[in-house]
Write a structure and sequence with these properties.
37% of the residues lie in helices and 12% in strands. Helix 14 packs across helix 16, helix 17 packs antiparallel against helix 18 and helix 18 packs across helix 21. By secondary structure, the chain is an alpha+beta fold. The protein has seven domains: 75 residues, no CATH class; 192 residues, no CATH class; 106 residues, no CATH class; 91 residues, no CATH class; 165 residues, 3-Layer(aba) Sandwich (Rossmann fold), CATH 3.40.50.300; 28 residues, no CATH class; 128 residues, no CATH class.
């Protein structure tokens, strides 16, 4: 280690000794050598050098890293690499020297801290999330320089910041102790997986971040679970040690008006704010929100404490775990390759003929995986990514061996970006295809041998293709009626965004207009006008027009006045359903009272605002339908709207309020409804004699992470309009009159009258509870109890209109659906969800990780469907026809690119 030391640290080695012997046989690395120099020994003046010691450590670590980099730098002159196919091509050209093949190797992931190492670590973490789910806890542990173990090792007058060696050793011991508490002692519950990272601050004190994924039984599910692990309040004087620790380590520095120069203050426009959001707001109860961030209980107790010349309260407390904070006395915050495309390393003096002749060079873990599947009678039943969990790769022998130890191993395929072409498509196939026996096996789909892996991925429906829309419409032409085909054409335009809508129109115009051609065989222009108008009406129901898709040339020029009153004409021509007309003569007393008052105001053209109040089943929708029919029979216009689309579908011509009045979804963009006076919709909005707005009480402000009390303060009942409304109350539950006791029970449950004072639990009556028999599977027992007809294969879709299984957890929904789908007779059809990344900077996320994401309201990545099984719409397709978010249907026909389903609740059961 004959290298010059930088001044002034060289004065600690005045005799110039290197500390080693030239004749020594054992090689000592730079890291081992300097680790030896940093050990605590008597008379080791280097450890007493203060800031010079800090500089010495930095300089010597630079040497350690430089030594590692030198290894890669020097060996890249002697070691080259190329794809195996590239070596074959080089030999074919007549070149046999390895010095003229391939390219030099770049910095590999084995260099700690390099870009490939960082990316590898990130992808490993994502593999754990893919297998076990999202992390439940974030724990941050920061070194405390005043730990007794550190102070007792310091010399007189010595400071902890001048002994980073000592601080790091003590911190590592504490870090391992915390890790043991989490993984083995289960202080937070049983851990499925944990990811941690140790970082070093500029001043030298290390800290660690833990991301903890709990097993399903130990998951944090309720606000009370948060309170078990996390506190954000100053401890009481009854726990003096914990109180002292929290006031010392877990109070945010005074900032804002108390200290404008605090480092956490950031400029945002003309305002300054704390980047961590302190001081927080007081909160009486812990609440959760959809974005996953809880608002912890932070009560206003009136207690204040002096911190750094400022007076602080609970709003400044950083989340902590009382047990761990007491124990550790520190800041502890609890919140793949193608055929012959494997890489082969070469030495310049090697002959390429010998490289090719060596069988071992052409073998890789992937090719051996193929051989293992081919050698096993029924294959290994594993995907390539999961294979490593049961087998280990013998690098020397280039073969797979069964694992003998019980270590938990999570497999992850090497990441490839879509820009890498065939390599990306091969990886996509390996992620989804079980038991592949060769590359040929991956390329063969349903007996057809594809030319490329991209084509094979398309054949297996793993990729989105431009032809998918075309194939969908082609299949629909064979099985759909013409009016349904036109509706599908409009739906495809809106939700699939085809690149050439005009080409689709020209190709399928004959099928779209076939019914009109039969009616008017000699009137070509009328047939075209009716076909265009039918498609346009479907588009308008979804808030779009032909102009949106470059099809404006299909429209026939209209008179300006006709165009301006088109919507009014459509509203007056809207049919009045027979069931709505019959509702008028079957109203109950309370319904009749509200009906008469509202109709009187309409007849006398008096303004008025009414509120119909009543629990579910008391006949509100029945009343709305009667009102709609009565006003429409007068020749007047009715606007039927609702806050939600599924409720709007229960009233004739119903539309959501956002769609009908063009209320902006993004309130930041505009606070005004975009309806110009001169357009047809502007004239229509001025024309109705009655506006029915169902679920008006659901028009609420979005208040993230707020308490129930704060939400009520901005609800409809707190509005200045509330006292001005004429209110009618419906109390008779017509829907449940055959079982009034159960109706009263539900009402009392909803009003919070059944909760016990001690634990806020509800005691359910025995008649609504079915005990689970010992040895039976709860899900199978539940599905058999609810839908016994499925086991007998004697059912129609009507059984799903009056019976449902409700559960709050998505994981339970998946288990119940899987059990139910297996009971349907016939052949199952597996489909795959196509996931598209809209952000151009998403290359860091692997395809299989994106496939594991299933947010609320989304289908699983690989749904299995059968004829007769149920589906639910998650988009508003045709609200006026009842096809909206929440509409349920039973599958009637399954095709390769098309699923035909019919509504099981074509008309609501009116009460």
């Amino acid at each position: 280690m004959k290298e010059l030391l930088l001044l002034p640290t060289e004065f600690f080695f005045l005799v110039g000794a290197t500390g080693g012997h030239a004749t020594g046989e054992k090689h000592i690395s730079a890291r081992q050598y300097y680790a030896y120099k940093l050990q605590s020994r008597p008379n080791n003046l280097l450890l007493r050098a203060g800031r010079c010691f800090q500089q010495y450590i930095v300089d010597m670590y630079a040497k350690v890293e430089n030594t590692r980099l030198d290894f890669f730098r020097k060996n890249q002159y002697t070691i080259r690499e190329d794809l195996y196919q590239g070596i074959l091509d080089t030999v074919e050209r007549g070149e046999n020297s390895a010095a003229n093949a391939g390219h030099r190797v770049v910095l590999p992931p084995t260099f700690i801290g390099g870009p490939r190492d960082l990316k590898k670590g990130y992808l490993n973490a994502m593999a754990l999330v893919q297998r076990y789910g999202k992390p439940d806890l974030l724990v941050t542990m920061t070194c405390n320089p005043n730990w007794q173990e550190i102070k007792q090792e310091l010399a007189i007058g010595e400071e902890a910041q001048n002994r980073p060696d000592l601080v790091s050793r003590i911190f590592r011991a504490k870090f391992l102790a915390l890790k043991k508490l989490i993984m083995e002692k289960h202080v937070f519950g049983e851990v499925a997986a944990m990811i941690y990272l140790v970082e070093f601050q500029k001043r030298g004190f290390p800290h660690a971040h833990f991301l903890i994924i709990l097993t399903p039984p130990c998951k944090i599910k309720t606000p009370a679970d948060y309170d078990k692990f996390v506190s954000v309040e100053v401890p009481s004087v009854d726990t003096p040690r914990l109180r002292k620790i929290i006031l010392k380590h877990m109070m945010h520095d005074p900032c804002g008006q108390l200290n404008p120069k605090c480092p956490c203050i950031k400029q945002k426009g003309n305002k300054e704010h704390c980047k961590s959001g302190y001081p927080k707001q007081f909160c009486d109860d812990t609440t959760t929100s959809t974005d996953g961030f809880p608002v912890y209980r932070r009560r206003d107790t009136g207690e204040t404490v002096p911190i750094r010349k400022a007076t602080l309260d609970n709003r400044w407390v950083i989340p902590y775990n009382p047990y761990l904070s007491s124990l550790f006395d520190c800041h502890l915050n609890v919140e793949v390759h193608l055929p012959n495309m494997q890489t082969v390393q070469l030495r310049p003096r090697e002959q390429l003929d010998s490289v090719i002749a060596t069988d071992k060079r052409s073998r890789t873990s992937l090719t051996e995986f193929f051989k293992e599947n081919a050698a096993t009678p029924n294959g290994t039943c594993y995907l390539y990514g999961r294979f490593i969990e049961k087998y280990r790769c013998d690098v020397a022998g280039k073969q797979w061996l069964l694992r003998k130890n019980k270590a938990v191993v999570i497999g992850r395929l090497a990441f490839t970006a879509p820009s890498e072409g065939e390599r990306y498509f091969l990886r996509l196939l390996l992620v989804h295809v079980h038991n592949p026996k060769s590359f040929e096996d991956l390329l063969t789909v349903d007996g057809y041998r594809c030319a490329t892996f991209q084509e094979a991925a398309l054949k297996r429906r793993l990729l989105e293709e431009d032809e998918a829309v075309d194939l969908c419409l082609a299949e629909a032409c064979e099985v759909q009626m013409h009016i349904a085909l036109r509706s599908l054409f409009a739906t495809v335009l809106i939700f699939c965004q085809p690149s050439n809508p005009n080409a689709l129109w020209d190709k399928y115009y004959a099928a779209l207009s076939e019914d009109f051609k039969r009616q008017f065989p000699d009137l070509y222009s009328k047939v075209k006008h009716l076909t265009v108008r039918s498609v346009e009406q479907c588009l308008e129901e979804m808030g779009k027009s032909l102009n949106t898709f470059g099809l404006e040339h299909l429209n026939v020029a209209q008179d300006a006045e006709v165009a301006r009153t088109k919507d009014i004409t459509d509203a007056l021509d809207a049919p009045i359903p027979e069931h709505c007309i019959s509702c008028r003569g079957r109203l109950k007393l309370a319904q009749q009272e509200a009906f008469n008052s509202i109709i009187d105001h309409v007849k006398q053209e008096k303004g008025g605002a009414f509120f119909i109040d009543g629990p579910g089943g008391t006949g509100k929708t029945f009343l709305y339908n009667a009102l709609y029919a009565e006003v429409r029979l007068m020749g007047k216009i009715v606007f039927a709207t609702s806050t939600s689309c599924i409720a709007a579908a229960n009233i004739p011509s119903g539309r959501t309020a956002h769609s009908r009045f063009k209320i902006p979804i993004d309130t930041e963009a505009s606070l005004a409804c975009d309806v110009p006076k001169q357009v047809s919709l502007g004239a229509l909005i001025q024309a109705p004699s009655l506006i029915i707005w169902d679920e008006a009480s659901m028009v609420l402000l979005v208040l993230p992470r707020k308490t129930q009390r704060e939400a009520v303060a901005v609800s409809l009942v707190s509005s200045i309009l509330w006292p001005r409304l004429i209110k009618f109350h419906l109390t008779e539950n017509i829907r449940a009159r055959e079982d009034p006791a159960f109706s009263e029970f539900l009402l009392a449950l909803g009003n919070g009258q059944l909760q016990t004072v001690e634990n806020s639990l509800v005691c359910l009556p025995s008649e609504v509870v079915k005990p689970l028999e010992e040895g039976k599977d709860p899900i199978t027992d539940l599905t058999t109890l609810t839908f016994p007809e499925l086991d007998l294969h004697t059912f129609t879709s009507d059984i799903f209109t009056t019976r449902e299984i409700l559960t709050p957890m998505n994981t339970d929904v998946d288990s119940i659906n899987t059990d139910l789908i297996q009971k349907f007779p016939g052949q199952s059809f597996p489909y795959k969800r196509l996931d598209t990344m809209l952000d151009d900077n998403c290359d860091v996320y692997s395809t299989e990780f994106i496939n594991t994401l299933c947010p609320s309201g989304m289908s699983p990545h690989e749904p299995v469907l059968m004829k007769g099984s149920l589906v639910i719409l998650i988009r508003n397709i045709l609200p006026a026809s009842g096809l909206c978010n929440g509409t349920r249907g039973d599958i009637q026909q399954l095709c390769d690119k098309l699923v035909v389903a019919g509504r099981i609740n074509k008309r609501p059961k009116l009460t």
